[in-house]
Amino acid sequence: MYGVTCLIAFWNPTINLGKAPVAILNEDNTVWVYKNNDMEKLDFKIGVLTDYKYNSLDGYISKEQAISSAYDIEKGILYTNTGTIAASKEEVANHIFQFNVWDIIKSALNEKTDKNIKDEDYVFSSPELKEDMAFTNIRYISSEKEIEKQWKGKKYYVQAKIEKGFGEYLIQQVGTTFNKKNEAPKLPKSNINLWTTFERNFIFGYYLNSMMEMKSALIVSAIENFLGENIPSFISNIVYKNFYKQLTYIPLKDEKVSVSQSFGTINNSEVIIKANEHYVISDSVNETNSETEDIKRVKSENTIFGDIREEITSKADAAQKTNGIFTNTIASLLDSEQLKTIAKILKIDLSNSKLMGYILLLNDNSHILNKYLYDVMHGIDPFEDSQKMWINLDHIDKLGLDSKVQKAITAFVTIMNGSERFKFNFKTYLPKISSILNEKTGFNLRLIKSQEVFNSTLNPLNRNVTTVFEFNKNMDKLAVANGFTNQISFLNTLNKKLIETIKHKTFDRFEIVNIEIAGLKNGIYGIGIGEFFIIIGLFVGTFMQTFIYDRARRTKKLKTGKWYVSKTLLMFVTGIVQATALTIALSLTGWIAIGSAAMLSVWLWLLFVDLIFVLTIQGLWFLFKDETISKVLVIIYLVINISSGWGTFPSFMQFEFFHKISFVAEFTYVLHGLGSIIYGVGENGFNSTDTLYIMQQAGILLIFAVFFVTLGLIGARNRNREIRFGSFLGKHVIDGMISLGLAKELAEFKSERKFFKYNWNSMSDDIYIELAQEVRRLHPFEGQFEWYKKRQNDGVFPPNETDMDIIKRNDDVEV
After folding, report:
1. CB contact set of 488 (below 8 Å; sequence gap of 6+)
2. Domain limits at 89?
């Protein structure tokens, strides 16, 4: 029963993590925003409308009023919290809108099924954030009073509070990066605060600490998309257009293109390209044309890869001498305005950043990457390319490496560069580089498939020059060979990952999303899961007393209440010793880390819990005449508590059945109280919030106590009657009195009432031994099968006297 129940209870609860109650608490105000982005020029114009003195406008005024207050028609200037923006009246009218952070977060959630329901009354859900994981119980709160009540409270396990002025602050941070006319005063910092806790359930808190999907997938992504929706595909189109614009060569006169250098000399392989036509050229020797030549040779700077001969790539100045479009573009990054703009967005100081070191290192060795791309785009397997290349480490000091590591790398590369045998080449070193990349990033260079993209009808032997149209078709084939639909699909994927990285870096730099995980200080597995084992241990320890103590009366005249209370006190006094010993043991095993205040609270809570367990087990123990049945009930109740009492996972993460029965599991409230002590008092000391919550859980447990005490007293009354009269059923007692001829006692015991027919209380408190024996003879508690009665019995031979109790239970008709 225990195995199957727990197997079902804990089948796959993690997929229901998203059922946790989530609250988005919005203190922010609605504002009017102007946004007009020119991606191609990397020009972002965004700002919250203000008056001429940079005071924020009421977000609920009309659009016309907002424009009238913020736009200077004569100067053609719009006043915003990111400074003044030059714009025409039409541009302003077409690009302003009301903005509230909640609206863009809501846009990232699943659409409401009933739009007539107010946001505050609707239960929102999110799309799938990762495989089988989505928040399905999201509440929106905008009331100041309710926000104050619920923030970091006990009702919602994950909370996101949008502070007042957050939208204005966020837009100012982004907008001022691009606006050079920034005269607006800086706004005080405002954040989104994400909060969750280990307190409700340790494993739940552990999972949220590991994932915290809400930050990246729900809130931040919604804001990022608002600031620049469809940016990846937009950039892909720009890159695609500029890529072909930069690669395309249009000769003013007819020019000569020699065969691609990696394919040797082939007769009649030169191609004459015509003036004013559009071509893409692979490579060319970086040499000055002879004055005597009628048709000039294409210069290397007009080709993609430039001069890729080994006599160039194996020298120290290879990156400069290659002189192709690719290497020259990398070199131009050093003074690129776009790079400076991106660095500004990310708040990176290029003069002190490792990023500049990596750019310099890439520039110094651009000929190596240039040769790799040459191989891929010419259908050559780079892993078989043995062409020698120089490694340049002139700017290694810019990478911020440890001095010993830097010296070791420099010494090793110096040996490589000085030796023909060990000089860098793809065939020797690329397998190791690929292996390291695969281990560190999961990216395997061997998965990149090479494909010839310079095939041309101009001259099939040349493999060096092609028309733009042919090159475009061939690039699509290269994309298909590597698992993409076409080259645009490849660019979209690449840009999406790049933009995601940049966007998250941007938000990390702005530091506008704060994450607080309450209880993280004590979020140790031994403490968290230890709560569950402690409570199981205390329950089982209390239960074991029923195997040591008995239910027997040892005083002839004793009322039911006194008899029951005396047994209860005996068990509770033992329980006090157990709980105290357990607390001392916990202190010695590292639990003292939660602090003395929390440790004292744990001890007091365990004493209270032990009392509840004593009353629970005592109530069930006295419920049936056969104590074995009672003990089985205790075990069943223990299984219910283990399977649905919030010990491993919150019950809402389990099947619905276990969630429903969790409300009758004492462990639910015991663990809630204990969690509040460990992760509340343990971190914050004694405080009113946790104290009130612990008292609330204690109050619920007292309801259980009243129920089980009532049950126990009823059971004790019946057991006491069985001791005194042989049965708790009046009609059985009457049968015994009649059988023994006890006329006086019969008249005293029996009444003429329709209900409450028997005068139990009028009888003496004495034990009627002879009557009890007769009643048990007339009405045996246990029966036997007829076949068993008729069976020949050769005797019963116990191995030890301790077996006699069970033998008596199995063979006798009385217990």
Report:
1. 236, 237, 240
2. 9-232
